[in-house]
Design a protein that fits this description.
Helices cover 34% and strands 23% of the residues. By secondary structure, it is α/β, with parallel strands linked by helices. It has three domains: 94 residues, 3-Layer(aba) Sandwich (Udp-n-acetylmuramoylalanyl-d-glutamate--2,6- Diaminopimelate Ligase, Chain: A, domain 1); 212 residues, Mur-like, catalytic domain (UDP-N-acetylmuramoyl-L-alanine:D-glutamate ligase, 3-Layer(aba) Sandwich), CATH 3.40.1190; 143 residues, Protein-Tyrosine Phosphatase, Chain A. Helix 4 packs parallel to helix 7, helix 5 packs across helix 11 and helix 13 crosses helix 14. The radius of gyration is 24 Å and the shape is globular.
Length: 482
């Protein structure tokens, strides 16, 4: 991962001061750099290398490679022989990962004091909500957002470093795997507006319960500015009755008409989702977002709430919602040899899997076409993994999905759950080996028919997008039977 400073360049001395590290000046003297990276292959004369210690890889083992690439500044936890023998400067810190947060915090205080911040966290929907808020704010304000899903203790600090100094707002995504991580990111960002999208099942393996996941997400309050706004999902029991004297709590809901921002009359159409909303007592009819699914209306409500808080008009909000488009492998809809593919392969949790099944169901019912789900393993669910996979299968069967293809041993539990709920075994095709994605592609070719709507979804490591590629290769110049 590499980032370039929005104010360039930065001297080694300034970098060391901001990292709170000890400067060991090389023979090149007081030179400056334009950016920083965590991958030695991206290091160079103008890019400093931060040697991070990970569970599997220690960046200190790649310092030599960074130096070979011409790197002149190494941020590390100890000054090794390669640095000592080179002309490069070392900035020695106690913890390289923590040093990145210190650097970003100091950088923000020095260069970004006038930039306001929205921070977004939650188990599901963080990136969509971040992107939608950015799209809406950009109608009225100069707004920056963290690229992709750079939401970690490494990615978010590096994103802060590239925030344009003339920005009025920045929208930052905050992810976590355990306690203390959201706290550090929130203190770094000092958000004016904080959003918690939901409390799901992701990270049960690490945190043990949804209550603990909720506690970890609420660490976002640690940096929330006095007088700021906390926007919450009012349909999540664990997030109800959250409040404090130093900030304002705002609730959104699809179920409670008394919520501050309430949506109803939701219609999933062929290329968009429409809904009505009541925004702090004011009615807004026929709002439109260009993504499919009831669950995306939550992201729209968070956006409505945040945009209202900063004073945007209804016309600006409507335009902002229409500007939003999903990026990467999030719910990409395309046509292939007579079938419709919903490629939602970025990641998966029980909550997002169920939401995607609902989209498939609504889309197929609207067009009276067969619904097909290709579902892979969901990871990091701990001891509850089998039961949670089975619950997805039960939901799929209850929705009446026509065909199910599973990929992986965990996903086999989805088929078991569907069978227990009454889905016929003849409508299921199982592949236990995630290394053999060609098997699933071949099964699809054999069983799909022209007009089918096919959903692909799995945890990122499964690589479900590869099945789509294999299917496209097999159907090149051909067509599915009618």
């Amino acid at each position: 991962m590499k980032t370039l400073f929005s104010i360039q360049p930065m001297s080694f001395g300034t970098l060391a001061r901001m990292c709170q590290g000890e400067l060991y000046q090389g023979s090149l003297g007081e030179v400056s750099v334009m950016g920083i990276c965590t991958d030695s292959r991206e290091a160079g004369p103008q890019v400093a290398f931060a040697a991070l210690r990970g569970e599997r890889v220690d960046g200190h083992n790649y310092i030599a490679q960074a130096l070979e690439n011409g790197c002149r500044c190494i941020i590390c936890e100890h000054r090794n022989e390669q640095i000592a023998a080179s002309q490069a400067t070392a900035i020695v810190v106690k913890d390289t990962e923590l040093a990145l947060s210190k650097l970003a915090y100091a950088y923000r205080l020095q260069n970004l004091r006038r930039v306001h911040t929205v921070a977004v966290t939650g188990s599901v929907g963080k990136t969509t909500t971040k992107d939608m808020i950015h799209a809406a704010f950009s109608v009225a304000k100069r707004t920056y957002k963290t690229p992709g899903n750079h939401n970690s203790l490494i990615g978010m600090p590096l994103s802060v470093l590239e925030t344009p100094v003339d920005s009025e707002w920045t929208v930052l995504e905050m992810g976590m795997s355990g306690f203390g991580e959201i706290e550090r990111l929130s203190i770094l960002a000092e958000p004016d507006i904080a959003v918690i999208t939901n409390i799901g099942s992701s990270h049960l393996e690490m945190l043990g319960s949804r209550e603990n996941i909720c506690r970890a997400k609420l660490e976002i309050l640690c940096g929330l500015r006095e007088g700021g706004y906390l926007i919450l999902n009012g349909d999540e029991p664990l997030l109800r009755k959250i409040g404090g004297k130093s900030y304002h709590t705002v609730y959104v809901s699809l179920a409670d008409e008394k919520a501050d921002f309430f949506a109803n009359n939701i219609r999933v159409e062929q290329d968009c989702t429409r809904f009505d909303a009541v925004c702090q007592g004011r009615k807004m009819r026929d709002l439109c977002i260009r993504v499919l699914g009831r669950h995306h209306v939550y992201a729209a409500l968070y956006t409505l709430a945040a945009a209202t808080v900063i004073g945007m008009s209804e016309a600006q909000i409507r335009e902002g919602l229409l500007r939003f488009a999903p990026e990467g492998m999030r719910q990409r809809v395309c046509q292939m040899s007579g079938i419709t593919v919903i490629e939602d392969c970025y990641n998966a949790s029980p909550e997002s899997m169920i939401a995607a099944i609902d989209v498939l169901d609504a889309y197929s019912r609207q067009s009276e076409r067969r619904s097909v789900a290709v579902l892979g393993d969901m990871l990091e669910l701990g001891q509850e993994s089998p039961a949670l996979h089975r619950s997805v299968g039960a939901h799929l069967a209850a929705r009446g999905i026509d065909l199910l293809f599973t990929v992986g041993s965990n996903a086999n539990q989805i088929a078991i759950g569907a069978r227990q709920k009454g889905m016929s075994s003849s409508h299921m095709h199982r592949n236990m080996d995630v290394q053999d994605l060609e098997k699933t592609a071949d099964l699809l070719v054999q069983n799909l028919r022209r007009g089918d709507i096919v959903l692909f979804k799995a945890s990122r490591s499964v690589g479900a997008e590869r099945i789509v590629e294999l299917l496209r290769e097999r159907m090149a110049g051909r067509d599915f039977a009618g």
